[in-house]
Specification:
Length: 299
């Protein structure tokens, strides 16, 4: 049913809100902790909303998926076992499986209905990745699964989760205890990539807090930023490592690894990689705190 009088409101700052025109509602799902909708947005294409916020859309979804996946995977010299936390649309999984050396990709997604809807209404996002024999899909609350026996060790862990806003379930992951559980599943040279919200100077609190918290656990922590049209602001991805440093890779080194893996992404490039990790001074200098279970992120 076409109805362009319906809008999704996306708060950017306490004083700025964007409105997206919804042309069609395709699917709705609810769990005890999260709601999702798949819609067509005018000018942005098909989109996934999580808890009423635009999580990903067709216009720049490829950029988001590639920046979450490839910098961390390229940083690791030989990623074979990869864990994806969240990622129910399959977009990040698709990019992970493009690395020829990957032998196993485990996806821990709490909402089975989200995966079902994504396969039906967003099939090009996963492009058959869930049917790949290297994929294992597990439906579990992320923090609960991390504290179980697991399947360690992993070479790379990627967190593709909604931001911990409005007291949502992701708040239990974005803490020192949650990140420590990730570290325990990583191999000795493992790399962790985590989407960490806005990287704009007006709203960097979550990004700065994630970066600061991860520094208490990992010896190397770098921040990558990329501009997304949907949110009208840069987004941050924190890459934490037990050994290899993403910032140590120059264009030639990234080119060599991409060619060795027969990988040519659409948005992420060897030339882009060094620039991604040029952290802005205002982020480095920003006072922040360590996120903990007893004091999680509060917007």
């Amino acid at each position: 049913m076409r109805n362009t009088s319906i809008f999704v409101a996306e708060p950017l700052t306490p004083g700025v809100t964007s409105f997206f025109a919804v042309e069609r509602l395709l699917a709705v799902g609810d769990t005890a902790n999260q709601s999702h909708q798949i819609v067509d947005l005018r000018g942005f294409g098909r989109a996934l909303l999580l808890n009423g916020r635009v999580h990903r859309c067709q216009l720049d979804g490829a950029t988001h998926h590639e920046i979450l996946a490839h910098p961390a995977l390229v940083t690791h010299p030989d990623p074979r076992r990869v864990l994806i936390l969240g990622g129910g649309t399959g977009g990040v999984l698709r990019e992970v499986l493009r690395h020829a050396g990957v032998e196993r990709a485990v996806v821990v997604e709490p909402d089975p209905t989200l995966v079902h809807h994504a396969r039906k209404y967003l099939p090009d996002w996963s492009a058959g990745a869930f049917e790949d024999p290297r994929t294992r899909l597990i439906h579990s609350e992320v923090r609960t699964w991390l504290q179980g026996p697991g399947e360690a060790p992993f070479d790379v862990v990627i967190a593709d989760l909604p931001e911990p806003l409005d007291g949502g379930p992701a708040a239990r992951f974005f803490t020192r205890e949650g990140f420590t559980a990730v570290s325990a599943l990583l191999a000795k040279d493992g790399v962790f990539a985590c989407g960490a919200g806005p990287a704009a100077i007006t709203r960097p609190d979550l990004l700065a807090a994630c970066r600061h918290t991860l520094k208490t656990i990992f010896p190397i922590v770098r921040t990558a930023t990329v501009l997304l049209t949907t949110t009208l602001e840069p987004r941050g991805v924190v890459v934490a490592s037990k050994g290899p440093d993403p910032k140590a890779l120059n264009e030639a080194a990234v080119t060599a690894r991409l060619e060795a893996r027969d990988l040519f992404p659409r948005r992420y490039t060897a030339r882009m990689h060094p620039a991604l990790f040029e952290e802005p001074a205002w982020l480095l200098d920003r006072p922040t705190r360590v996120l903990e279970d007893a004091a999680p992120f509060a917007p």
